[in-house]
Amino acid sequence: VQLQAYGGGLVQAGGSLRLSCAASGGTFSTYAMNWFRQAPGKEREFVGHINWNGGSTNYADSVKGRFTISRDNAKNTVYLQMNSLKPEDTAVYYCATGGLQYWGKGTLVTVSS
To answer: Quick one: how far is CA 2 from the chain centroid?
Structure first.
């Protein structure tokens, strides 16, 4: 399975951004999916998780209520909608399959104050 995250960029604090993660080469609809992020000088951290059909999600406390994960199995894509962004959300964001077998290259999100 190949994963590619995209949609990052520069946004002001309080703004919104939607990341996408496109999958190819596997049966996307059978995988749960995760989003992680890694801020400069920090360890990679869990952001959120969605099950195979989108019926269940869970989030890190730091993003709960602001970020939403969804997926479109017909498009082999998972999304991360980020609202009310804060400077501390600045990081490279990665998508990964549920069991962490496969990771995409990250996309950089920079939130300016």
So the answer is: 15
3-state secondary structure of 36: strand
Q: What angle do CA 97, 102, 108 make, to 5 degrees?
A: 85
> Is residue 30 classed as helix, strand or coil in its secondary structure?
helix
Task: Compute the distance between CA of residue 35 and CA of residue 95 in angstroms, rounded to an integer.
Answer: 5
CA 60 – CA 50 distance, rounded (Å):
12
pLDDT at 26 over 90: no
Q: By the 8 A CB rule, do 57 and 34 touch? A: no
Cα angle, residue 61 at apex, residues 6 and 1 outer, rounded to 5°: 35
Which tokens in the block code for residue 39?
A: 């801020």
Separation in Å, CA 54 to CA 43, 50, 61, 73: 27, 6, 20, 9
As given in the structure block, the two tokens for residue 79 are: 């999304």
CB-based burial label for 64 (10 Å; 0-12, 13-18, 19+)? exposed
The label of the residue with tokens 């804060």 reads: 86
- What does the pLDDT look like over 59-73, one tens digit per residue? 999 999 999 999 999
